[in-house]
């Protein structure tokens, strides 16, 4: 099968406002940007991938970086973590103390950062679809 | 302390990342499957190869 499997986008030509709305929605909730554009399959896959990576990251007691830090690497970690949208404040509010003295905790840190980074890529993809530059 | 093996963590990460990248970069299901499989094999195979290459350093 060679035809695209997702249904057509909501707008045929796309617009900057649709792109921005899709980006913000996709950044806040993984997959929501694509759901707004009726890309249901992509939305489901992105939601499951990003949320499962973030959930396992928290379960493994990875470090969730805050923005008040002088360490540039921790700042980069914060940017990656904050890219997970609403998952970031949820993870912070759970108040689970990180434990990176074990390998599992270190994996958790990377998993949550990867979830944020992938979510940012997904939100940018929703933006390009929303503006009509990608089908 | 929750426990997950190195290999299981690697498989989980590779599966999630490959599926996401496949859906981001390919338009059809067939292309997505091929891309995801290739990316998964490269993630896991690359990690195992790198592990063997670094093995002499730790011993």
Q: Could you state the order of secondary-structure elements of chain A as H and E?
A: HHHHHH
Structural class of chain B: mainly alpha
Query: How many alpha or pi helices of chain B?
Result: 2
Q: Which oligomeric form is depicted?
A: heterodimer
Description:
Chain A is mainly alpha-helical and 135 residues long. In chain A, 63% of the residues lie in helices and 0% in strands. The two termini of chain A are 17 Å apart. With 59 residues, chain B is mainly α. Chain B has one domain. Helices cover 85% and strands 0% of the residues of chain B. Chain B contains two helices and no strands. The model of chain B has no long low-confidence stretch (mean pLDDT 93).
Question: Which characteristics define this entry?
Answer:
heterodimer; A: 135 residues; mainly alpha; 6 helices; B: 59 residues
Provide a compact summary of the structure.
The complex is a heterodimer of chains A (135) and B (59). Chain A is mostly helical.
Task: Record the SSE blueprint.
The complex is a heterodimer of chains A (135) and B (59).
Chain A (H helix, E strand, L loop, with lengths): L15 H13 L3 H5 L3 H20 L12 H11 L4 H8 L8 H28 L5
Chain B lengths: L5 H20 L3 H30 L1
